[in-house]
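=== RUN LOG ===
request id: a7f3
mode: sequence -> structure
chains: 1
length: 286
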Amino acid sequence: STMQVDVRKVEQAITKNTIAIVGSAPNFPHGMIDDIQALGKIAKRHKIGLHVDACLGGFLLPWVLELPEYQGQLPFFDFRVEGVTSMSADTHKYGYTPKGTSVVLFHNSDLRNYMFFTAPDWTGGIYGSPTMAGSRPGGLIAAAWGSLVSLGRDSYLHYAREIMTTSRVMLQGIKTIPELNVIGNPLAMVIAFESKSVDVFKINAAMKKRGWHLSSLQNPNGLHICVTVKHVGKEHEFIADLKGSVQEIIDNPDAYKNSSAAMYGMATAIPDRSIVKDIISGWPYL
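=== RESULT ===
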């Protein structure tokens, strides 16, 4: 599987009640960039909106597209694609701002006006808000703005180049480990992998012991690393530790059987997902 959205099924699911379709650039689990151009054609054909979820990549991929060495290697996913009507991008990720801020962009002001909330006849007075939230923390907005302008274009281009270089080295390194299979065709900074012979959740536990924090995936079971500036210069160390972790589990299949790795593996195997939902719902009370 490509782990991209199936554009054929998307179009089949459209009804008279559909107002918009969605694509990712990239998606969180596997780092796949959906075929936004194909989705744009579908949106135009049905006269509906197309939202691009670029929350993860919105402040990285645009800079990558400007790097000469990556010209033509990444597809366009933004308003350059006909049919895209809105986008979202989290400033607190690759924008390097304090957590708690994000942006939504619209193709034109007419669409943006639909986001505004107005109550012209409220007994408390004429009321309007540019977002669903009536009150917003101004300090976070100011901090986000300050972070963006202090870094500036040159820094974002530099970080994008460093992250992509590191990602490519990691990707090639993972491919040299015979027990691991890269999921899909990652073009950017998220690399996901699975294994048919070794318990990936135990690999994750072994990597955590070595100081690495990978995200656990399911359907299929796997792990991913989201490469950031913090990983730059540590790519070879990562591959060495990953090889060591895989070998550790091969040599000791019963390792970490009492760890969270075993619990996560058990949870993914429960066929009745409502049970898992109940367990998750109870977690905040612990």
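=== NOTES ===
The longest strand covers residues 20-24.
The mean pLDDT is 93.
=== END ===
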